[in-house]
Amino acid sequence: MAGPDSMFCEPLDWGALARDAAPAVTDPTAGSTSSQALLRLFGRPEDEVRVTLYRDHHAWCPYCQKVWLWLEERRVPYRIRKVTMFCYGQKEPWYTDLVRGGMLPALELDGRLITESDHILEALERAFGPLGLGMHAPQALPLRQLERQLFRAWCQWLCVPSHGAGDEARGQEGFERFAERFARALSAAPGPFLLGELGTVDLIFVPYVERMNASLAYYKGYLLRDRHPAIDRWFRALEERSTYLGTQSDFHTHAHDLPPQMGGCHASGTREQRELAERIDIGPWPVVTPPGLDPETSQSEPADAAAVALARVLRHRGPLLARNPLGPAGLDRPLRCALTHLITGRDCPPPAGSARGLRYLRDRISVPRDMPLHAARLLRRSLEATACLDPSDPSAPGEPIPVRHRRDQDPAPFLAAANPSLRVSP
Ligand SMILES: N[C@@H](CCC(=O)N[C@@H](CS)C(=O)NCC(=O)O)C(=O)O
């Protein structure tokens, strides 16, 4: 048994760990935006709810994010029903009965079903009033076109295979043209947002600019916020809002959720790109130094980040253990070692052969689905630090993250654990 002065410590048991976990949010219908909430009331009675948002389980769908953010910003009471995307599992039959083809998002407003995110935003603006100047303001229309141009230039650079440095340079140039226009539009505005106060048009840019920021860092070694101070200022202003923070993902999640959704993402292969991608995958975080220039977030680490990460793991402990390549018996102790490191900061060596199971989990923490960005960083750091102490094979990799699909992220076992009536018999 290791004494208090020993360099290493023994893992805490599950009961002791539970005592250090952050308490559950008392009322998810009010309070900060959270990916886990299924009903948002903003202090209104439940019988006033007129809206149901259908969005994806993992918060990976960009078109869902803009509608989600709009409802949160406008504080419209709504219900959430989560649906599986084709890339990570089987679409729920009740959803394909409702929406032919199963596309997301969809929204029910006063019993009327609406699809297509822009139609949804239009209907919401009609029913509840615009956010800021609204999406039909004359100034908003050219900006909405710019968003699509920027999106296409990004796809061209990221998703079309390049044959050497010339192609890469052309891809970057094409992207820069529209990124500069976006930055100029932001600089021309009186505040950090596009048309003065935050409006629907900002929210239309949010999902893909967030994904550009992450994917271009990972696959091209290109730091969007560093290159365009006006875009950084826009992100900083968004990151002051609890609404955006509740929907915001991180570099690692997007780097690995985008390939199956986009039909592939192509790395430039430069030294800078490879170094940054490795940092995004295994840390340390922030992914660039000095820390003042964190390209993922302007927010510093909240004091309860480790306790939140711990609480989220404890909540899903059963399926997390069962889904791991080491199995429940094999992962139990290594996971407790990592969680002990997470909350005590002390090294806790796992049994021989556990590095691959710890790294499997490290690579599958999804932000904001599982926890916020800083909590995820701390958990990944503890999983990696503990894997490095594996006495037999400290550098054993986890199972590679698939790129054509993400069925390793099938939510079915987690849903069945939370609600046994959903369990499908084999
Ligand atoms: N134009 C549509 C695009 C929606 C869309 O492409 N949704 C994707 C997810 S991002 C989808 O539902 N794909 C089916 C699936 O992945 O299950 C909109 O604006 O709502």
Can you tell me about this structure?
This protein has helices at residues 14-20, 62-74, 93-98, 117-128, 140-159, 165-188, 200-220, 224-227, 229-238, 242-247, 251-262, 271-282, 305-315, 317-323, 327-344, 355-362, 373-387, 412-418; strands at 39-40, 51-56, 78-83, 106-109, 112-115. The radius of gyration is 22 Å and the shape is globular. The relative contact order is 0.12. Helices cover 50% and strands 5% of the residues. By secondary structure, the chain is mainly alpha-helical. The protein is built from 18 helices and 5 strands. It folds into 3 domains: 39-128, Glutaredoxin, CATH 3.40.30.10; 140-293, Glutathione S-transferase Yfyf (Class Pi), Chain A, domain 2 (Up-down Bundle); 305-422, no CATH class. The structure holds glutathione (GSH).
CATH class of the largest domain: Mainly Alpha
CATH topology of the largest domain: Glutathione S-transferase Yfyf (Class Pi), Chain A, domain 2
Element order: H for helix, E for strand: HEEHEHEEHHHHHHHHHHHHHHH
Let me know the average pLDDT.
95
First and last CA, distance: 44 Å
Biggest sheet overview: 5 strands, mixed
Bound small-molecule species? glutathione
Q: Helical segment tally?
A: 18
User: What is the radius of gyration computed over CA atoms, rounded to a whole number of angstroms?
Assistant: 22 Å
β-sheet strand percentage: 5-15%
Give the strand tally: 5
- What portion of residues is helical? 40-55%
Named at the architecture level, the CATH assignment of the largest domain is Up-down Bundle
Sheet with the most strands: spatial strand order: 1-3-2-4-5
Shape: globular
Briefly note the structural class of the backbone.
Answer: mainly alpha
Give start-end ranges of low-pLDDT stretches.
none
Tally of separate domains: 3
